[in-house]
Amino acid sequence: MTITCAENARENGHIMSDSGRKIGFLGTAAIGVGGMVGGGIFAVLGLSVQLAQGAAPLAFAVGGVVALLTAYSYTKLSIAFPDQGGTVVFLDRAFQPGVLVGAFNVLLWASYVVMLSLYSYAFGSYGSGFAGESFRPLLKHILISASIIGITGLNLLKADAISRAETWIVGVKVTILLAFVAIGLFGIKTAQLAPGTWADPLHIVAGGMIVFVAYEGFELIANTAQDVKDPKKTLPRAFFATVLFVIGLYILVTIVTVGGLSLAKIQAAQDYALAAAAEPFLGSFGFWLITVAALLSTSSAINATLYGSARLSYTIAKERELPEELERQVWHRPIEGLLITAALTLVLANLGDLSSISTVGSAGFLLIFGAVNAAGMKLSRRIGSAAWISGAGLVACLGALGALVWQTLSTQPARLLILAAMLILSLGIELLYRLLRRRPLHLQRRL
Length: 447
Known about the structure:
Layout: H1 5-12, H2 25-36, H3 40-52, H4 56-80, H5 87-95, H6 99-127, H7 136-156, H8 161-164, H9 166-184, H10 201-210, H11 231-260, H12 263-268, H13 273-318, H14 335-351, H15 354-378, H16 380-383, H17 387-411, H18 414-436
């Protein structure tokens, strides 16, 4: 889940006060946890089990290491360049605006569209559990479309009920997941987690990378850096505490899921695996409790990501890497970006399948995070960071991407065409925009 949280908070009176009160450690960490524990874990848990099998907890740990290394670069860059533009600003500062940087920024926007598709797909998958098997596929698509159209309408009407409730929603979903872990740990079958049930190492890494979208939200903290109290002290603590907490939470949730439900049953309920895993030890109440948590989580994630994606397009346009029309605001908001994002999401979520959406989204964010690590390396002297840590993050991102591509190529090579199309489209949009507007392929940053 991503959102320009400081800006949203000012509008909604949610985190920042009109007096300009700064966000402390707990508030900053809450933003990161809310961003990471969005709809991702509810949507992709079954995919990880399908690939890594009994080693799914290890797969989540591998993905967490990549996130943790990248968090170092985000921490140093956020302290040096506190701006609500976050990733967009970091890449521009390191490599200067141009076709390649512009293409990466467009790719970031496209990756958020993929994330929106994942969240709305999960909303439809869990929500359709209320229907019988025969009606379930149709209801899933109805709910997918309704979640996108309805929440887009809320944004257009300036309704901020979901945003105001965001802290409560984060608290509820984390509490439910912790309760799921606390109760479920007493009923796990260790044999289902034994090394004999593990997939081979490459599939374990691929299993961690296909679900990498569940980790992407920590970069949200970067968008609030300019509003953080004592950023040199608060930002490192918030970034690392957030990532470490979520790694631990995901590993425990996966241990309970794999240890409490057979691999065959998890794969059969792949789209709503977490709800199915709660049923053996909590009965039908557990199934519906997790379902309600998933619906709350994914709806808040859709709302936040729609809001943030519209403002991301606005930020990229201000950097002169997308048409100026996306800078124009209606009712003090970038309406064009909101509607384009929602329309693309509506198409992708209804035509794609969960595995394809997750693969493309994870690959997109691995590329973006690799670029941010490269920015950290290049600017290491300026931002006072250790270049080798950012370099390790870059290698980890590229290695993880390689494992994901290898696994996809060996099982579903057609999905690589979707990824290639997204990359080519991102570059093509940037090139076409510059040619039509007669912009140079490399230009100085607008002040």
